[in-house]
Amino acid sequence: MTIDKGAAIITGCGKRNGIGAAVARVLSRDGFPVVVVDIEPAGVRDIHEPANAADPDWRGVESLVEEIRQAGGTASFVFGDVSDRVAVDAIVAHAVTTHGAVEILVNNAGAPFSLGHGDIAAVDVDEWDQVMAINVRGPFLLARAVAPLLRERGRGRIVNIASVAGRTGSKNNAAYAASKAGVIALSQTLALDLGPDGVTSNAVLPGFILTTRSLSGMSKKTGASVVDDAMVAKSMPSIPVGRAGTPEDVAAVVSFLATDAAAYVNGQSLVVDGGVLRL
Ligand SMILES: NC(=O)c1ccc[n+]([C@@H]2O[C@H](COP(=O)([O-])OP(=O)(O)OC[C@H]3O[C@@H](n4cnc5c(N)ncnc54)[C@H](O)[C@@H]3O)[C@@H](O)[C@H]2O)c1
Fold first, then answer.
1. 2 part of a folded domain
2. What is the pTM of this model?
3. How far is the CA of 200 from the centre of ligand 1 (A)?
């Protein structure tokens, strides 16, 4: 007997070229009903987002749901701030009411690139708190809310999108790096707490992935309001595989972690960086 797949909740899906949207597309192709979440329809705009990054035809999570349904998948969207306990409970309630059960949680939402970014002596304390709230409290609240559902089902997957910054640190990026180290430790702890119930928890650590976020980083660094392919090629870090990562590179690893074949992978940090950490 095959059991119907429970829903996959994926946070931070508003941007067309974001990691969240790529994860939603691939998990839908894998047969999971997907619940795509964001705080704003087309994602929060970073103050350094290049002028050419936005896509006027993209209506965010609504467009993503349409796209997935047209491809034959099952999808719904819900808005909510992952750092808000009431909103998180509503997100999980939406998943259960709409799709019957929850099986996968992908904590992907991330604080905007420029929030809390800068030299340590100048980091705004409120911004530090906001980064921690979105990047660490959010995944904690969502994991806490889905844990009873996954335990009851006896099968579940939690995948937290951290960053190589959580392992190496990141210059002028203390809040972000510390938050992502927190996400790695949270993933490891969830693996211990939920592993006995058939629920695995892992962190995925992307390196340089070409999304609006990384373009905002380049725009801030170079001062350019428009970032084109030539600029990306010039300012990209040295990467052993010779190219920038794509959201699909990260989504493929999440897809694997969601399979039964990955049932014995628990509490790990899977680095998706083209080999940069080996340099
Ligand atoms: N792009 C990269 O190079 C890279 C590298 C390492 C890690 N990551 C991580 O991968 C994840 C996705 O990154 P990305 O580059 O695709 O997108 P991004 O950082 O541009 O977008 C993140 C999404 O999270 C949403 N979000 C922000 N605050 C939220 C909140 N309070 N509640 C709900 N949603 C909220 C935003 O609206 C946005 O759609 C992030 O966690 C990021 O830290 C990205």
1. no
2. 0.98
3. 22
